[in-house]
Amino acid sequence: MGRLSNQKVNYFVSGGPAAYQCVEIIATLQAEGAEVDVQMAPGAEQWIPRAFIKQLLLGAASLVSTQPMLMVGALTVVQIDHELPEVDIAWVSAIASNIESAGVQQVIWLAGTAAASRFPVVERTGEWVVSDQSYSGLPRVDIDSVVAGLEKLSQPPLLAGKRVMVTAGPTLEDIDPVRFIGNRSSGKMGFAVAAAAWRAGAEVELIAGPVALPAPFGVNTTRVRSARDMLAAVESMVDQTDIYISVAAVADYRPDMQVDQKIKKAGAGLDLHLVPNPDLLRIVAAAANPPFCVGFAAETQQIERYAQGKLVDKGLQMIAANQVGRDNGGFESDNNSLHLFWPGADQRLPSTSKRELAYQLIEVIARRYSMGSTG
Ligand code: CTP
Fold first, then answer.
1. Domains plus CATH for the chain?
2. How far is the CA of 313 from the centre of ligand 1 (A)?
3. How far out from the chain centre does Cα 89 lie?
4. 297 CB under 6 A from ligand 1?
5. Does ligand 1 come within 6 angstroms of the Cβ of 250?
6. Could you give the CA distance from residue 143 to residue 202 in angstroms, rounded to a whole number?
7. Ligand 1 centroid vs 187 CA: distance in angstroms?
8. pLDDT tens digit string along 294-344?
């Protein structure tokens, strides 16, 4: 399933050199499952032949008009070039006033900051202003952020106004400058959870151990290395957190000392002495005014028993248990399943992509959180 399946997108393309990207954007939105309708400004035809857009839309009508029309029930994308031709200024102004008078909020403005300041409606509606990157001197928007933004606009804002903190990935505990103790966490689930919380309207802080994943669009991402680094980051943000989702596979132990020079091979063996790391989730949940705390329990056996034990023992509002150490699912996989527990009840989320699973988890968290905050 594409990320924009069953969505209708109404895409307004104005003239100017930035119009070159509309072909790529239309093709990407279609590949993600959206039904795209395009309206071109009079000046856009200088840059993009209408016949070509028609071909991309498989013959569906694409309008070149001086009277752009908002489509009811569609998500709206408006591209404004920073070198907007005179003939298109009235066209963009007409869209802007239609959007304002219809009270439409589901708009993505593709515009540089200069264009944004020219049309104040850009800052009052929709989600954000993208672009200001460049490609061969041409303005360029990050297409993934357009898809992410449309996805967000198409979903109910279950966590609007909430501040969510997510920890993700492994922590690495250094032995010397070249060696460390780590674990097999890929960070995929935690990153998916952070992205899903953002799409649900939350303001999200993601604190990630060393993983190769790019920061999810819209999410404030802080990179750390060890459990103690992660704890410092968590403690600096926890006061501004409503919901804490602890997905990280924090190393339970670290070497009792870390040396500055590479340890040389000598003799038969090497004794490492390990000391316990702080338990971040336990510390946060035990604070005077804790956020709503959701733990993860990575288990290889007796999942239910251990997960429920951690729920009670760490004083959590919810725990998401998953089986690790199998071939399918768990740490490095793109798929996973979860078994959620909270006091007095449980719910299974069957195996699916981590992306979809993260969304389902956020739905359950939002429901449980709102029940708690209304008593
Ligand atoms: N956790 C944490 N800090 C630690 C260890 C774990 O914050 N030092 C959090 C994890 O992010 C997870 C939950 O505690 O949300 C449970 O982690 P898990 O590794 O399953 O359990 P542990 O408490 O470490 O217990 P054990 O390793 O014995 O299963």
1. 8-153 (3.40.50.1950), 163-371 (3.40.50.10300)
2. 11
3. 34
4. yes
5. yes
6. 22
7. 15
8. 999 988 899 999 999 999 999 999 999 998 876 656 667 788 999 999 999
